[in-house]
Design a protein that fits this description.
The structure holds 2 protein chains of 2 kinds.
Chain A (H helix, E strand, L loop, with lengths): L1 E4 L4 E4 L15 E2 L4 E7 L2 E6 L4 E6 L5 E3 L4 E6 L1
Chain B lengths: L4 E4 L3 H13 L3 E6 L7 H5 L2 E4 L12 H10 L4 E3 L9 H9 L3 E2 L4 H8 L1 H10 L15 H11 L3 E5 L9 E3 L2 H19 L4 E5 L5 E10 L3 E13 L2 E7 L6 H17 L3 E11 L4 E8 L6 H8 L3 H9 L16 E8 L1 E2 L5 E2 L7 E2 L6 E5 L14 E9 L2 H14 L1 E2 L6 H9 L1 H5 L7 H6 L2 H7 L4
Parallel strand pairs in B: 1-2, 1-4, 2-3, 4-5
Antiparallel strand pairs in B: 6-7, 6-8, 9-10, 9-12, 10-11, 11-14, 12-13, 14-19, 15-16, 17-20, 18-19
Helix pairs in contact in B: 4-5, 7-8, 12-13, 13-16
The chains are: A mainly beta, B alpha+beta.
GO molecular function (chain A): acetyl-CoA carboxylase activity
Pfam family, one (chain A): Biotin_lipoyl
Protein name (chain A): Biotin carboxyl carrier protein of acetyl-CoA carboxylase
Chain lengths: ~80, ~450
Amino acid sequence: MVQIQSPLPGTFYHKPSPEEAAFKAKGDAVAVGDVIGLIEVMKTFIEIKAEAAGTFAAYTVDNEAPVTAGAVLAELDD
Amino acid sequence: MDIARLFIANRGEIAVRIIRAAKALGIHTIQAYSEGDADMLAVKLADESVCIGPAPSKDSYLDIAKVVAAAVATRADAVHPGYGFLSESPEFARALEAAGIAYVGPTADTIERMGDKVAARQAAEAAGVPVVPGSKGRVATVDEAAEVAETVGYPVMIKAAAGGGGRGIRIAANEAELRKLAPQAQQEAQAAFGDGGLYLERAVQSPRHIEVQIIGDGERAVHVYERECSLQRRRQKVWEEAGAVCLDDETREALCASAVALARSVNYRGAGTLEYLYDEARNEFYFIEMNTRIQVEHPVSEMVTGIDLVQEMIRVCGGEKLSLAQEDIQRNGHAIEVRINAEDPHMQFMPWPGKVGAMTIPEGDGIRFDHFLYEGYQIPPFYDSLLGKLIVHAPTREQAIAKLAEALTGLGLEGLKTTAPLHLALAADEDVRAGRFHTQWLEPWLEAGNLTKATTGGAS
């Protein structure tokens, strides 16, 4: 199990825009550098990228939820 | 004045600024705040405060129904909108009017009219204010476009009449390019907006951004001189000055008089700013838009004139007449403001909402720091990155830059990363010191690595 953490406090988004699908869904292959979500911090959107490869398990916080720095955003199965 | 209880529908440094102005006028202050802002400085300073919803702006500071309900519930006589959020919303101004609460700003109709670029341009032209030379309305054919371009002078911008947000804008340097680009622009406009109509405007090369502060009481209006705001990154001002030393006295007088003419023609009430492009080579200025609110950079105008713009706007919107005649407003020296943002300029300006540690605030004659910080404050990540504005005032521009460098060196904000190093580097830059810049200057300067060079002494 690999955890992806937020480097910054802010608002977490599963989707690139409200009309689109989430970046990743359960079972998707995740490569190093894949974008799994966005953090909005001070009106700027920062891409959250996987630092390890794996299979996407789940988002661990809701879409559009406030998060703190270090919060676990998603988990991957090895 | 009819305002005894003022509701502040904003946050951050401008909320603090408004509270201080209101208190100086003996007005009771009521601060609105979101759940993300419960511990902000304005809440601590206000006489009372009221929560208006969750942290995201759309659920709190931008929610007209919630803000108006809170103003009614706290028995406010008037609402100050600050800048950003609902400060240029005619719907908000109308909702307050319907609730019997005064709005510290112009009428909803004026906000609406000046917020519409075409209507604002028409109002400016009617008041005799120069606008960017262009076609009178839409052009139907490529031949007509070429004729217009010949009159206004190349290069020209080709824009979709129905468009907005920069879509479909092309720049043609000569007639051959225009004949190639105009049909493309027509097709794109047709596809995007179902309307292939175009209009043309002269593309002003490397313009300066110069703006004029005005204030009116609904009948009379005066100007509080101009500001030079050309140092911008991503269309956000980072460094602002009063006055614009590139202007000769005759041009300055004409510019400021044009702003007053427009303000009078719309019976303007409150503080407002007319923004212009200034073409230095031609010594010509063109109105581009009006902001119907107080602006972030208002303190530089206050420093050179000694006028408290926020107090004055509260007074006139409370039904008083302007306390100033034009001849009472004199310029004295030079002022510079720099925006201290919670961003790391060495990391592509990555936002950095840290927790404020020990603070050292520079003090002294001609130094002012408008901010909302206190030791131990955790900067919330939900809003923009402006932490404060460091403002200096000195007899000359050269002295003001020296004072700015000194004040920046004396500013200590532990626990944060801020844009202060950018401003120190700018204050040391030869072009900035000589006043040689325009709106397209700062981004290439940053891309060329000048910030890194300045802060490592060229060692990298």
